Amino acid sequence: MAHEEAARHKTFGLEIITPERIVVEEDVEGVVLSSPEGFYGILRNHAPFIGGLNIGVLKYRQEGKLHWVATDNGVFEMSGNKLRIMADAAERGEDINVLRAKEACERAKHRLGQRHEGMNHLRAELALKRSLARLKAAVGERKRDA
Amino acid sequence: MAEQVRDIKRRIRSIKSTQQITKAMEMVAATRLRRAREKVVAARPYAREIQGMIRRLLPAIPDVAHPLLEPHKSHRVGYVVMTSDRGLCGGFNGHVIRQAQVLLAQEKEYALIILGRKGRDFFRRRGYRLLAEFIALGDDPIVAQTREIAQALLDLYEKNLVDEINLIYMEFISTGRQRSKVTRLLPVEAPTVDETGQEWINDYFFEPEPEKVLDMLLPRFIIGQIYNAMLESKASELAARMIAMGAASENAMEMIDQLTLSFNKARQAAITKELSEIVGGADALKG
After folding, report:
1. pLDDT tens sequence across B22-38
2. Smallest CA–CA separation between A23 and chain B, in Å?
3. What is the DSSP letter of B60?
């Protein structure tokens, strides 16, 4: 009981919201996310803060367990012990199929490899980044359980 | 007489097959409506939270001068009218279009942007000039579509082809109630800043600087708003179709009842007539 009480004092609210829905709404002990300025580690009582979110993997710790979420670009805000992440897209690692993510990754790599007229290089690169993030989140989540 | 009976029978059959179609459409609309309603509710927090962030951010920028926030000088007002691709949805398109016409009549200069085949056909037929159109958007709005639409609208706005953009769509209140709604999209109306929050707002860190953060927030707010409106519009369309098709099925039922009654009467009359002819013939032979 005392332990639980102590744990509650260390947590803060994490919300990951996409245009479609709320993907994550949990009390967590810590979050690591990647931003254009680098990686941020956020704990309870972090100062009020607004920043950008990158395509990548967000990790959060809940009851000592690490969770992985693949995110697209976005904006995040920490204030009043609530971390709100407005991502263009986000997916929990546990909801991502590893095999399919791997296939998507291969396809994106292949597309980036071949050069032909009218190919949007930047777009292909972003697609690869996204698929890598998804794969990483899916694998990370499975490793923890293994 | 026998011919009349056959005619009625044929009409009953035709109404029955129409009723089968309207019933099926009602059921399909009901199923899709359930999903559409869930999506409307699930999508609401995004735009709301982003607006909150803008509100908290603005005090940190003393002289906000963002192109998406500043009202333009000249005044050509753009209207985005959200209609459906398909008909048979009661007054749905009529309501939005009427609302649009009322607003357009008040403008000296306007620009029309249409979503949905029904609206496009209507305004084209009447000789309105359309600045942009998006059709065949499907029954399940996805964010990728919204991004394209948002990008197109932002382009029009940045090229000064429109100085203001409003959305006209049907707001979903309940299955039985939808109403036309007009909301301003661009320039973004700066949310009213809560004066009491001014002090602690100074403690905020921004990374990158606040102006760049605003750059990240405003387009996302616009996407969120368009997406919400598209979902509301879709839910309203499905609700309107469900109700309209339900009413059509009921009307068909009534017609079938009435026709069945006339059918029975006509059949009985035919039998009676035949009987009296036979009896009459027999009497004549006896006599």
Report:
1. 999 999 999 999 999 99
2. 10
3. G
Chosen CATH of A2-93 out of 2.60.15.10, 2.30.30.140, 1.20.120.920, 2.30.30.100: 2.60.15.10
Domain with CATH 1.20.5.440 in chain A: 96-145
DSSP letter (8 states) at residue B61: -
pLDDT value for A5: 60
Average pLDDT, chain A: 90
Sorted by where each starts, the structural domains of chain B and their CATH numbers stand as 2-19+245-276 (1.10.287.80), 26-243 (3.40.1380.10)
Residues of A in contact with B212 (CB under 8 A): 52
Contact B146 A19 (CB under 8 A): yes
The CATH architecture to which A96-145 belongs is Up-down Bundle (1.20)
The verdict on a CB contact (< 8 Å) between A47 and B203 is yes
Query: Is the Cβ pair A75, B207 closer than 8 Å?
Result: no
Question: For residue B215, what are its two tokens?
Answer: 């750059």
Residue A145 scores a pLDDT above 80: no
Domain limits, CATH 2.60.15.10, in chain A:
2-93
Flag whether residue B49 sits within 8 Å of chain A, measured between CB atoms.
yes
Sheet with strand A38-43: strands edge to edge: A38-43, A30-35, A56-62, A65-71, A90-92
User: How many whole angstroms from its chain centre is CA A98?
Assistant: 16
Q: For residue B210, list chain A residues with Cβ-Cβ distance below 8 A.
A: 50
ipTM of model: 0.88
Residue A37 to chain B, least CA–CA distance (Å)? 7
Whether residue B71 has a cis bond before it, omega within 30° of 0: no
- Active-site positions of B read 89
Provide the pLDDT confidence category of residue B204 given band limits of 50, 70 and 90.
Answer: confident
Model confidence, pTM: 0.89
